[in-house]
Amino acid sequence: MKIFIAANKLQENELQSINFSGKETFTIAPNLPERHQFKNFDAYFLLNNFADFTREIDVFENKTVVINEVIETLSGLNLPENFHRINAWPGFLQREIWEIVSKNPEQVKKMLNIFNRKMYFVKDEPGFVSARVISMIINEAFFALGENVSTKNEIDLAMKAGTNYPFGPFEWAEKIGIENVFKLLEKLAKKEERYIPAPALKDYFLSNQNMNS
After folding, report:
1. What is the 3-state secondary structure (H, E, C) of the chain?
2. Do 165 and 159 form a contact (C-beta atoms < 8 A)?
3. How many other β-carbons are positioned within 10 Å of the β-carbon of residue 95?
4. Averaged over 39-50, what is the pLDDT?
5. 5: which strand partners?
6. 87 confidence band (pLDDT: 50, 70, 90)
7. Mean pLDDT of all residues in 150-154
8. What is the pLDDT confidence band of residue 38, given thresholds at 50, 70 and 90?
């Protein structure tokens, strides 16, 4: 099987830790190949922003396509059955279990088995399971920060020491990206108020946006 992987440097580095099975051929690049080269690949693993690839949907035909899309759903994007969702936020590719959303699990299993990861198929909902839970933990930490319960460092230390988490909530926020966390919470809050971003988190997100603009 010949697989094309569209990935940025961070994602490429995370994939380097995987012991791939079989004799598959991989091509890793930041962008898709030229249209005339699409026939050279059997499957696509699109880890960069999927919005960059929407204009190319027609060239994928019935080939297996796995996209990194945490916030939007397959049904919301109106994608065909050969498209499958995965969470490739920073740090998640290194996990032993990958959460997958698929309308055709047997098709995507054939491709993802070579990555030597356990697959857990979940509902087609924003945030999968783990990203939604972690974003909620981060949000609660920002509520505590905004209410002057403690400092960022102390909250991170307490969570790691008390719950044996690998990262504290603010460390997680920096690793995942505050924009990812905020936008997921905003999406979830449209249906459930408990996901409304904490004022301190919103302020932090907006200040980052202003610094980068």
Report:
1. CEEEEECCHHHHHHHCCCCCCCCCEEEEECCCCCHHHHHHCCEEEECCCHHHHHHHHHHHCCCEEEEECCCCCHHHHCCCCCEEEECCCCCCCCCCEEEEECCCHHHHHHHHHHHCCEEEECCCCCCCCHHHHHHHHHHHHHHHHHCCCCCHHHHHHHHHHHHCCCCCHHHHHHHHCHHHHHHHHHHHHCCCHHHCCCHHHHHHHHHHHHHHC
2. yes
3. 13
4. 84
5. 28, 45
6. very high
7. 95
8. confident
pTM, full prediction: 0.90
Identity of residue 193: E
Phi-psi region at 164: left, alpha or beta (left = phi > 0; alpha = psi -120 to 50)? left
Which one is predicted more confidently, 211 or 92?
92
Say which residues have a Cβ less than 8 Å from residue 109's Cβ, sequence separation at least 6: 119
Q: Mean pLDDT, the chain, as a whole number?
A: 89
Tokens in use for 109? 């299993």
Among the listed residues 68, 74, 104, the one whose alpha carbon sits nearest the alpha carbon of residue 86: 68
